[in-house]
């Protein structure tokens, strides 16, 4: 799951060129700050401004979190033996965390309280 590339999803969601988005994501991964990228790396980003770069940063983080959560949900349901091809397809098609959690809700393990354990 570590090889996830949010570039296509970010570029599509924000309507920005994929080359500029990929450059911004790479620069952010190297530790560059948003103001630094906007001021000194315009040639690599295609002239994206600070607001667009910050939007890319936020959207890329959201998509990474969604991808990680999707993997966790799939693993949990698979361990329960309840993962069907249709459910897998629906989970992989999720575009938001809320949609993913709605699908996961019936399969989410319930907390066991001390009273339940005692029964």
Topology:
Elements: H1 7-14, H2 18-29, H3 34-40, H4 42-45, H5 50-80, H6 85-93, H7 97-104, H8 114-118
Helix pairs in contact: 1-2, 1-5, 2-5
Quick tags:
mainly alpha, Arc Repressor Mutant, subunit A, 71% helix
Task: Give a written overview of the molecule.
The chain is mostly helical and 119 residues long. It has one domain (7-108): Arc Repressor Mutant, subunit A, CATH 1.10.10. The chain contains eight helices and no strands. It has helices at 7-14, 18-29, 34-40, 42-45, 50-80, 85-93, 97-104, 114-118. Helix 1 crosses helix 2, helix 1 crosses helix 5 and helix 2 packs across helix 5. It starts with 6 loop residues before the first helix and ends with a helix. The relative contact order is 0.11. The mean pLDDT is 91.
Short description:
This protein has 119 residues and is mainly α. Helix content is 71%, strand content 0%.
How far is it from the N-terminal to the C-terminal residue, by CA? Answer: 40 Å
CATH class: Mainly Alpha
The rounded Rg comes to 19 Å
* Backbone structural class: mainly alpha
What's the CATH topology name? Arc Repressor Mutant, subunit A
Q: Percent range for helical residues?
A: over 70%
**Overall number of structural domains:** 1
Q: Number of DSSP helices?
A: 8
Largest sheet: none
What are the segments in which pLDDT stays under 50 over at least 5 consecutive residues? none
Give the overall form.
elongated
**Percentage of residues in strands:** under 5%
CATH superfamily: RuvA domain 2-like
Tell me the CATH architecture.
Orthogonal Bundle
Written as H for each helix and E for each strand, in order along the chain, the element string is: HHHHHHHH
The overall pLDDT average reads 91
Number of strands: 0
């Amino acid at each position: 799951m570590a090889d996830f590339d949010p570039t296509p999803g970010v570029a599509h969601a924000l309507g920005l060129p994929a080359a500029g988005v990929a450059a911004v994501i790479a620069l952010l991964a190297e530790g560059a700050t948003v103001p630094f990228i906007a001021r000194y790396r315009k040639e690599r980003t295609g002239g994206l401004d600070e607001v667009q770069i910050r939007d890319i940063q936020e959207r890329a983080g959201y998509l990474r979190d969604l991808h990680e959560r999707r993997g966790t949900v799939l693993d949990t349901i698979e361990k329960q033996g309840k993962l069907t091809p249709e459910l897998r397809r629906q989970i992989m098609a999720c575009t938001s965390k809320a949609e993913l959690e709605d699908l996961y809700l019936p399969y989410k393990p319930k907390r066991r309280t001390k009273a339940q354990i005692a029964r």
